[in-house]
Amino acid sequence: MKSFGIALLWIVAIAIALLLLVRFGRRRKIVLRGRFAPHLVRLVVLVLVALGASAETAHTDEGKGDADKVGQAESDAPDVLHAKTIARWRAMTANFPRFTRAYALWHSNPTAHPAPATLFETRRAGRVPMPPRLRDLITHESTAIGAGEQRPGVGAASLLSALAEAEAYGLIDNWVCAFLWRFGEADGPPRDPAALALHVELGKRLHRHARLANALLRAKAEVKPIAYAPRVWASKGGPKRVVRVREAKARRDLLAAARRLWVQSDAGPWEREALVGFQVEAGSAAAWVLRAETGAETSVGPDKKLQLTRLDLLQAREGAGPVVLRHTWLGTIRLLPGETLRSWDLVKRLQQPAQEKLALAVKQALQGDEAAAALLEGALPLTHRAIREGVAKQPDAKGAPRLRVILTLYTD
After folding, report:
1. Sheet containing 305-308: which strands, arranged edge to edge?
2. Do residues 374 and 332 share a domain?
3. Distance CA 397, CA 34 (A)
4. pTM score, two decimals?
5. Measuring CA to CA, how many Å separate 47 from each of 6, 39, 122, 232, 247?
6. Sign of CA dihedral 340, 344, 346, 347
7. What's the DSSP call for residue 264?
8. Which of 40, 214, 235, 373 lies at a C-alpha separation of 20 to 30 Å from 383?
9. Residues 114 and 249 both lie in one domain
C-alpha cells in the first residue's frame, strides 16, 4: 500500500511538472494556490530539474542550425576586437568616464572649469595612459577655445591616426567618435582624390568605432560587471589568484559576447539622429551619396529623394553638370561638378532666403516657440550653426536650454 502511494505521488508530480512546462513554454505566469504536501513539492521540483535538463539539451539541438550564422558573425568582427583590447578597454572604462564628465563641464563653461589639458594630472589619468595623439588634440582644442578661437584643422589623416591609436589603447567610446568628428569641422571639404579617399575612410572608421563601442556596452550588460568583496586593507602582493581567475573569465566572456553581438549592433545615434533629407530637382544631374556605413556609392537621379547622416558624403560627379537639391523648408543648395560636401559644409550653401528663415526660427525658438524648435531639430545639418550663434547671443533666453539639448544631437 505504501509503494502504491509513493507511485501515485510520482505520477501526480509528473503531471504537475508537465503542466508547468507547458505554461512555461507559452510564457504564462504561474501562481500556485492551495495546500500541497512538502514531499509532493519536492518531487515536482525533481521532475522539473530532470525535464529541464532534457529541454535544455533539446534547445541546444534546435539551435545548431544557427551556429554557422554566429560563427560567420564572429569572423566578420574587426581585428581590433581581441583579448588585449578587452583588457585595456576594461581598464579604460574604470577611469575615462570621470574625464569625460570633467570635459563636459569645461566645454559648457570654459571660464568656470579647468581646461582638459590639466585633467590628465588631477584626475589620476596616469593610471590609464591617454593616447598621445588624442591628448594632443584635446590640448590643441582647449588652447584654441581658451584664446577665443575655433578648433584648428588637422586633416583627415591625423584624425585617422588618432582613432587607430585610441583603439589600440583600448579606448573605444562614443565620446572619442564624437570628439574626432567635431575636430574635422575646420578641415573643409576634400579638394582632390587623395583627400576624398581619406574622408571616406574616416567616415567608415568612425562608423565602425561607434558600432564597436555599442557592441562592447551590450556585451558588458550581458556578462555583467564583476563584484569585488569589500576589504579593510589591500595586500601589496596584488589581487589573489581567485580574483585573477575571475577577471580572466570575465574578459573571455566579454570578448565572446562582443564578437557575437558585433553583427547585431549599429552605430546608434549616428544612424538615427541629425538626419537631413533632400529631393534632387528635375533637370539636375544625379547626386552621389558615399555611405559611411558600407562605403558604397549610391546614385540618386532627378525627382528622387535622398537622406544623409552626419558621416555620409554628398558628391557631384565631374562632367555631369551641377546638382541641385531642394529641402522642403530651406530651399535649394547647389553643388558644382566635381564637388564633394560633408555634413559640416551643407550650411554654407544655403541661400539668403534660407538664412532669413533660419534667423526667424531661432529667434522664435529662443522665445519658447515649440513649433520653431521642432523645425530646427528636423534639419540640424542645416541649422546647427544658427542655433549655436543664437544661444551664444541669448544664453538666458526662455528657449535656450531646449536649443542646447537639440544642438547636442548634432555635435555629440
Report:
1. 305-308, 276-280, 323-327, 331-335
2. no
3. 64
4. 0.77
5. 14, 12, 60, 45, 36
6. negative
7. G
8. 214
9. yes
**Cell 569641422 -> residue:** 185
Cell numbers that stand for 153 in this block: 584643422
Residue 75 domain-assigned (yes or no): no
DSSP SS3 for 390: helix
Which range of residues forms the domain containing residue 46? 2-61
Residue 401, all three cell numbers: 536650454
> Are residues 265 and 132 part of one domain?
yes
Q: What is the DSSP letter of 34?
A: S
Specify the amino acid at residue 23. R
Please report which helix (H) or strand (E) contains residue 185, including its range: none
What is the per-residue pLDDT for 237? 62
Domain count along the chain: 4
Return d(Cα 83, Cα 234) in angstroms, integer.
27
Query: Does residue 73 lie in a domain region?
Result: no
Look up cell 557631384; give the residue: 316
Task: Dump pLDDT digits (tens) for 284-333.
Answer: 999 999 999 888 899 999 999 999 999 999 999 988 899 999 999 999 99
Domain shared by 142 and 223, yes or no? yes
Q: At what angle do helices 370-377 and 400-411 cross, to 10 degrees?
A: 10
